[in-house]
Structure formats: C-alpha cells, structure tokens
Amino acid sequence: MNQFFSAVSAGFVPVMAALIIGYGIWKKAPVYDYFIEGAKAGLHTAVDILPFMIGIYIAVNGLSASGFLDFVYVVLRPVFSLLSIPVELLPLMFLRAISGSGSFIILQNILEIVGPDSYTGRAACAMSGGCETVIYALALYFGVTHVKKMRHALAGGLIGYFTGIIVSLIICNIL
Amino acid sequence: MNYIWAGIILVSFIYSCAAGRLDEFGQAMMNSSQDAVTFILSLAGIMAMWSGLMEIAEKTGLINKLSQVLLPVTKLLFPAQKDPETLSCIIMSFTSNIFGAGNSSTVFALRTMERLDAQNHRSPVASNDMCTFAVVNMAFAPIIPVVTVQLRQNLGSSDPYSVVLPAMIASWITVLVSIIACKFLERRF
To answer: ipTM of this model?
Structure first.
C-alpha cells in the first residue's frame, strides 16, 4: 500500500509537467520559450525571499541552540501531567510550529523512546501529519509581499495549529 | 513580525547568557544563515521549473480552463477574487499540498502571495484574501504522510498506516476551523 501512495506522491510532478507541456504542444505554442521566461521569474522570487529566510532561520535555530525551549518544557511539565497529556509530546508541539526538519528529528526521537504503536507515538505522528510549520510559513509567505501588518493571519494560523494538536490527542484516544 | 522576530532573538540571547550557552547560540546564528542560503538554492531549481511550466499553462489558456472548473470551490473561500491566474495558483498550491509535494506547494503559495500583494496595491496592510489563503494553505496536509509512515515502518510498527486516518481527520478539522476562524477574525482586525 505504501508503494501505491508513494507512487501517487511521486507521480504528481511528472504528470503535471507532461499535461502542461502536452497541452501546449497541442495548441502549437512555443513551449520552450515560455518555460524559459517563467523560469527566469521563478529565480527572481527565490532571490527575493532569501533575506526573509535568513532572518527566520537565525531566529529559529538561535532559539533552539540557546536552550530556552528546555526551560519552557520544565515550566510546562506540571501543566501537562495535570491534563494527562504525555510530556514527551511537548518539544514536538513547539518545534512543529517553527521548523519542519527539526520537528521530524524530534518525532523520530519520540517514536524511538515510546514505540510507534503506543498512544503517545501515534499522537505524535498524527500531530506531525496534521500540523504545519505556522511561524515559518507565515514569515515566508508574507516575505514576498509589502505587508507590514498581517492582521489576523497569525491568530488564524495559531488557532488552526492548536486545533490540529488537540484533535490529534483526542482522535488517537478514540481510534 | 518585527516584535516576534526581535522577541525570539532577544529571549534566546538573554537565556543563552544565563545558561552559559552563548557560544552555541552564536554558532547557531552563523550556521543558520548559511543553511538558509543552501535551502533557497535547493528550492530555486524547483521554483524555476514550476514557474516555467506555469508560464506555459498560463499562455496556452490551460489555467483559465482549470480555474473555471474549480470556480465553485474557490468562490466559497475567496468570494471577491476574480483573476483566473491567481485562482489557479491558489488551486495549485492546495492540490500540491494534498499530494504531498511540499516544495511545489511553497512555490505556488509564494506566487499567490505576490499576486495578491499586487491586487492589494502593495499596501502594508494585509488583505482578507491574503490572510485566508495563508491560514488555509498552512492547515492543508498531505493525504498520506509518506515520510511519517516510512519512519514508523523502519521503527518496527505493527501497523504503520494506523496514523493515516487520525492525521487526515486532524488535518481536515484543522482546515475547517481555520476557514471559520478567518471569516470570523477578518471582521475584527
């Protein structure tokens, strides 16, 4: 089954590419010229977002390296035991919001400790699947715009993020 | 953003001073600026490729057709959005997200934001469409979290797929709540 899903995932790019180019040729359009034109614009965007990426990377990695998150975990530990939420999930809940690759390493650590089939392990997997790197994505998305005030984007993103966490915890308890 | 960014860095600085980890903190800052460049360079190729392909789709009219088909769906989320190309960028971003093509989705998300920014006359205040798009696109998750499933398999799970349904439910509820939150919040901000 995994092979099938991997194939769907892997097939997305080539199928789209073939469709677009095929349609272009059928319409007798100069597809190669168009492609070059668009690729040029794409590279421009990549350069444009670079400063924002450096800014967000510095903040995120600096925060993890300073050890401040360890301090937060110690403070929040009692709250978690009170709500009977597994404390192992704490680092994942925080890091999932800011870094995709970082949270993946944490997920791996959690699964190695508690086992992939335990409640904690399954909740961790559901969380990584259902939550997105909100802070990072917002910085990136608004980085290409002239927006200084992003209004309710942060609040909305965080609401979605916490919904994902809570639903993961509940659903893994039921299913 | 100014306060969030400054806040994160200053808190890290103060804490690393107190914890005697200033060295690690400094090192992380240097390394991460390097990592950011590496990441963008690795993304730049995919970005250029998709931009190129989308240029073809755009000029041959394929995009217009696609957005007409999916118009009813996008009308719900972006009632004021008329531009077919912006709509198709939004649709492509959502679909590539669902199919687990994360990098492609990022590219389309950035294109969408650029277009929405132009429609917003490069105003410093975000438009409703920008916020809705950003929030909903972040809430979307791949149907099958392939990497997570693979990881579970490697660690000897008896049923690696048992998390697919929970993750899917979590992500769809998140999408729903995000949409409602956006429509509600946009009147207050």
So the answer is: 0.78
Percentage, residues of chain A above pLDDT 70: 94
Residue A167 counted as domain residue: yes
Q: How many CA atoms lie within 13 A of A125 on its CB side?
A: 33
**A37 falls within a domain:** no
Residues of chain A in contact with residue B175, where contact means CB-CB under 8 angstroms, are: 160
Q: Which of residues 89-148 of A touch B (CB under 8 A)?
A: 100, 104, 107-108, 111-112, 115-117, 121-122, 125-135, 137-142, 144-148
- Indicate the pTM of the whole model: 0.79
Q: How far apart are CA A126 and CA B163, in angstroms?
A: 6
Least Cα distance to B103 among A9, A81, A38 occurs for A9
Report the number of distinct structural domains present in chain A: 1
| Domain boundaries, position A145 | 67-174
> What dihedral angle (degrees, nearest 10) is formed by the CA atoms of B98, A164, B133, A22?
0
